Amino acid sequence: MGRRVILFLAVTAVAGAVNVLEGEATGTENLAGEVTVMFWNLENFFDFVDGGAGESDAEFSSTGPRRWTKKRFYRKCQAVAKTILWAGSGAGLMDGCAGGHEGEGAVLPDIVGMAEVENRFVLNQLVTKTALRKLDYEIVHFDSPDPRGIDCALLYRASRLTLVSAQPCRVSAPDLQTRDILLAQFVTPSGDSLAVLVNHHPSKYGGGETDWRREVAVARLRALGDSLAAVGWTRAVAVGDFNDTPDNPLFRTLEPAFSFCRYTGGRGSIRFNGEWQLIDLCFVSPALAGEASFSVQEPPFLTERDAAHSGDRPLRTYSGPRYLGGVSDHRPIFVCLRFNHTGRSSSRSLLYPIPTVAPPFSSRQLPSSPSHPFPSTDEPANQSFSARVSSPGSSQPICTDRLHQRHFSCTNTRKKGRIPQLARPTVQETPNRNHYYVHLEIDQNPT
What we know:
Blueprint: E1 4-12, E2 19-22, E3 33-45, H1 55-59, H2 70-88, E4 111-117, H3 120-128, E5 137-141, E6 151-157, E7 162-169, E8 181-187, E9 193-200, H4 211-230, E10 236-241, E11 259-260, E12 262-265, E13 270-272, E14 275-277, E15 280-284, E16 292-296, E17 303-305, E18 312-314, E19 318-319, E20 322-323, E21 333-339, E22 384-388, E23 398-404, E24 407-408, E25 410-412, E26 417-419, E27 426-429, E28 435-443
Parallel strand pairs: 2-22, 3-4, 9-10, 12-16
Antiparallel strand pairs: 1-2, 1-28, 3-21, 4-6, 5-6, 7-8, 8-9, 10-15, 11-15, 13-14, 16-21, 17-18, 19-20, 22-23, 23-24, 25-26, 27-28
Helix pairs in contact: 2-3
């Protein structure tokens, strides 16, 4: 007889935002897991082409006043990649994350959040034209309405994490155009859900008159945390350039959705007028409060002597119009998240609903009646989803297929096999009617 597997599908109106995890007992323990997150403000990480997108786009081009040439661009790509690998080597860890993944000696970042990235081309070059090409980093990026044309983005290791959903969350108010908060939702190797929010809040340029802008951004982050918790995504981490230090009372308004993550080391993430300040921060949800820590990384090859003040400072790409060959005026931070599980799991089914915390760019509304969850026509519903047919923590291949009326099929892309269809799934409608749980029981290895 073949091994029987029970699957739960969370079906949403957002195309591609569905995840499947197996939940039957396997007799194995859920081992302690760890996810590492790096964040870095990359300071004007533009490509070298003037695409006509605005003043900053023209300034940072091979023909612009900065003379941002192709050679200089790729030199920065190489330096960013080198720093990611350096941080993952353990050389920069202040608190010593638990250890490598899958027997590795390093703790390569599972997620790399970034700020001040111009576009997807920059990210593509970073992961394909540097040493990162040997790894399995995938890209999450959306354009934002920021007047400078800079966005938040992230990379994630596809062998370690399953991306469930990603969306830009607008930070909006009259007379405010700024970066979106990037929300990405994952399933970890231990089968846990994890929401990651990458932030770049408005700067202090302009003095106290700009405080209200950061208040809007913090309020938006708090609302996102509340929405995630309300639909069961209790593990969430918010990283980014918050343009303020953690002692600002404004950050108390994030509670109880988020609290300041345990800080374990580093002089600060930027140096301003000879003083180190910590403005690149990490906040975590209550479920992670006792299992998370972060530190500032100090790569020695991206440090220079501070000629105006004693000590050193981050090596920037430019100082005014003068090219220096560095990366940023910020130092990266490195976050360690630990997922500890004890005991044995029997018949464990993991359901990960996807919150509607921001309007999707494209959607297809499913009928709201639980008795008719899928379109009754003969045309495919075109609802894409990712499926992991395995025990939590194992590494079976991911497949993508479609729901057609009440039928489900999934192609195993590695073995080119096929899981038989089942025509009568049990459908449970959720209270907000934005998605459905579809319960399927199939034979993974039919005889």
